[in-house]
Amino acid sequence: MQNKLIIALDLPDKKQAEKLIVDLEGVVDFFKLGMELGLSVDAHYIKNLVGLGKKIFLDYKYHDIGNTVENAVRRAADLGVYMLTVHGEKQVIEAAVKGKQGTNTKVFAVTVLTSLGEDYAAQYGCSVKDLVLRRAAYANDLGADGVIASPLEASIIKTQFPKLEICTPGIRPIGADKQDQNRAATPTEALKNGADYLVIGRPITQAPDPKNAAQQIIKEIEKA
After folding, report:
1. What is the dihedral of CA 133, 138, 142, 146, to 10 degrees?
2. What is the largest distance, in Å, between two alpha-carbon atoms of the chain?
3. pLDDT per residue over 178-214, tens digit each?
4. For residue 170, what pLDDT band results from cuts at 50, 70 and 90?
5. Domain count of the chain?
6. Which residues are part of the catalytic machinery?
7. Could you tell me the pTM of the whole model?
């Protein structure tokens, strides 16, 4: 069940990230690198983590013209990144899928950020659920491997697009503060709704004992 848990390395510098990775040795080997840490690391750093047997989820949410996205994804795939995110409409997803061809890297399309709610979706003249499904349909039709979606929409995505893998941020153990997550759920709820991967950051990274916090969440995943 360890391969379902992704630790978000949303930390201010590489030194703190390295300490956490060491602290979690033998418990978690799947880590998300996002924009907060992004400028602190380089290609060599990512490739080194991959060489040490770590799975890397590169959460840079690529959104640009097709050629730029295609080349960026191809470069990430060359480093051995396990999965990465793109954020945009059809042409962005299409370019990313083209860029990862011939590699094992997975492309996940962001649907609606878990910090956003109905006010955001109203700009598109629909509900959050409808907007998520619209973007999941793009991902499915264009050959993406999966989508980033909240645990609350995981079930309906899995029902309509069973081939898509679902990675869910906004995971909060029972009793944890939701903080800036608007559409959150517990690990058990997310898995029962069809999530394939759970991204957890602060409940582990800010815990007094991150290793113990991760172990408790893994136990919950196993029960679910």
Report:
1. -40
2. 47
3. 554 555 688 898 999 999 999 999 899 999 999 999 9
4. confident
5. 1
6. 61
7. 0.91
Per the prediction, the chain carries an average pLDDT of: 91
State pLDDT tens for residues 12-35: 899 999 999 999 999 999 999 998
Tokens of 22: 């060491």
Query: Which pLDDT does position 223 carry in this prediction?
Result: 82
Name which of 105, 101, 100, 94 is nearest 65 in CA terms. Answer: 94
SS (H, E, C) the chain: CHHHEEEECCCCCHHHHHHHHHHCCCCCCEEEEEHHHHCCCCHHHHHHHHHCCCEEEEEEEECCCHHHHHHHHHHHHHCCCCEEEECCCHHHHHHHHHHCCCCCCEEEEECCCCCCCHHHHHCCCCCHHHHHHHHHHHHHHCCCCEEECCHHHHHHHHHHCCCCEEEECCECCCCCCCCCCCCCECHHHHHHCCCCEEEECHHHHCCCCHHHHHHHHHHHHHHC
Range of the domain at 50: 2-223
Query: Domain containing 46 — which CATH number?
Result: 3.20.20.70
Task: Answer yes or no: is pLDDT of 92 > 90.
Answer: yes
